[in-house]
Amino acid sequence: EPEVTQTPSHQVTQMGQEVILRCVPISNHLYFYWYRQILGQKVEFLVSFYNNEISEKSEIFDDQFSVERPDGSNFTLKIRSTKLEDSAMYFCASSAADNSNTEAFFGQGTRLTVV
Amino acid sequence: SQQGEEDPQALSIQEGENATMNCSYKTSINNLQWYRQNSGRGLVHLILIRSNEREKHSGRLRVTLDTSKKSSSLLITASRAADTASYFCATDTGRRALTFGSGTRLQVQP
Question: Which of A32, A33, A69, B60 could form a disulfide with A93, with the two C-beta atoms 3.0–4.6 Å apart?
């Protein structure tokens, strides 16, 4: 069964460093997303991406964040200068383009720890 | 309450019993989805119910949607220890970005 894969599974970084989280969405999906979940809290939407551009972003997704689809398979989330409060589980998701069926398929997540 | 709030926050039952979790939301939705999350793991999509549907089944899962009350319920019948997880509802208001609730932690005792 097709699945969304994320790497790395765990990333530890020093405050102020840049991190890139990687995702390979399901191959025939055209919508891509990043969500995050701070420990013990809700899953929060960060950004959606369609047709090589951001289609929507939340207030969390400030200038420190960026997304890119550098090739036909990868979808990345970059945090330019990490802060302690960026520590969270980051989930990538993808969904089909069909507007009648928008279920999102999530990866296993990358646990980001900023020290 | 915020968009997509589940209750109860925690539920502990015996294996074989049914588990019911509820979700309330505030704004109009395109669809509502239920996800499961095992501790520290990813989100697994369980079922999607569209705004024009009232009930949907998938295996031991039954989901209902009442758009007049802006609420949904997830019923897991004949629960198993392996059903132990957190369950989240997530609403799609037509923008595709999902709004998740706080989740219900289900513990099924063997």
Answer: A33
pLDDT tens across A34-69, in order?
A: 999 999 888 999 999 998 899 999 999 999 999 999
DSSP string, A55-89: EEE-TT--TTEEEE--SSS-EEEEESS--GGG-EE
Gap from B75 CA to chain A (nearest CA, Å): 19
A106·B31 Cβ contact <8 A: no
Q: Tell me the two tokens of residue A10.
A: 């765990």
Of A35, A48, A105, the CB nearest to B96: A48
CB pair distance less than 8 Å for B31 and A102? yes
Among residues A24, A30, A115, the alpha carbon closest in space to that of A77 is found at: A24
Answer whether A49's CB lies under 8 Å from A75's CB: yes
Q: Decide if A43 and B100 are in contact by the 8 Å CB cutoff.
A: yes
* pLDDT higher than 80, residue A100: no
Residue among A4, A11, A13, A14 at smallest CA distance from A89 = A11
Q: Which two tokens stand for residue A59?
A: 């207030």
Q: Higher model confidence: residue B33 or residue A72?
A: B33
